[in-house]
């Protein structure tokens, strides 16, 4: 009888322990799942905060750049400052140049609020200089405070190559404000 009682106590203890293990295992799963979800949400929130901080920085740059962008677009009817900049660069870089401008062309671009229509003015340059002065001329074009795109460059070197006087043809686009 004592053996039967001991056996019953052992079986009861094992059953209670098994029930406790199953119950605790379910609770541990719930806690682990909640912790996993909380960590995932924290990671998503941290990622969103980084994106928001980056956007705030980018919007600040854009807001600060608006005057510079507006200044980079001369009026379509007055591109004399751009012409003067080209002549000054050619003189500084010891390049002979001839400039030809096309008339303004309406583009589908606009800038700002209220929107300002952006036109394009094509231009052609016939230059005479060596490759080294031409490279400096191109670097100077990059530094211009105007929105300029170089569409094509053609270099015809003499018999001695590009290091001596070469004929250079460039075609580009100047972006301007539509002033009508």
Considering the chains and any ligands shown, give keywords for the structure:
Alpha-Beta Plaits, 32% strand, alpha+beta, 3 helices, 4-stranded antiparallel beta sheet, 180 residues, 2 domains, 53% helix
Written account of the structure:
The structure is a single chain. The chain has 180 residues and is of the alpha+beta class. The protein has two domains: 1-71; 80-177, Ribosomal protein S6/Translation elongation factor EF1B (Alpha-Beta Plaits, 2-Layer Sandwich). 53% of the residues lie in helices and 32% in strands. The protein is built from three helices and four strands. It has helices at 2-71, 80-92, 131-143; strands spanning 96-111, 116-129, 148-158, 161-177. Strands 1-2-4-3 form a four-stranded antiparallel beta sheet.
């Amino acid at each position: 009888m004592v053996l039967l009682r001991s056996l019953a106590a052992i079986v009861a203890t094992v059953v209670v322990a098994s029930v406790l293990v199953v119950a605790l295992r379910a609770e541990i799963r719930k806690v682990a799942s909640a912790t996993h979800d909380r960590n995932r949400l924290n990671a998503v929130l941290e990622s969103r905060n980084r994106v928001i901080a980056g956007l705030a920085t980018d919007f600040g740059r854009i807001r600060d750049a608006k005057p510079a962008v507006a200044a980079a677009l001369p009026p379509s009817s007055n591109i004399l400052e751009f012409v003067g900049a080209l002549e000054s660069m050619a003189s500084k870089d010891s390049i002979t140049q001839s400039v030809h401008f096309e008339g303004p062309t309406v583009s589908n671009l606009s800038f700002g609020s209220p929107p300002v229509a952006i036109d394009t003015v094509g231009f052609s340059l016939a230059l005479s200089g060596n490759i080294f002065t031409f490279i400096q001329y191109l670097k100077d074009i990059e530094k211009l405070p105007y929105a300029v795109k170089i569409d094509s460059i053609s270099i015809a070197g003499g018999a001695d190559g590009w290091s001596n006087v070469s004929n250079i043809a460039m075609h580009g686009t100047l972006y301007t404000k539509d002033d009508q």
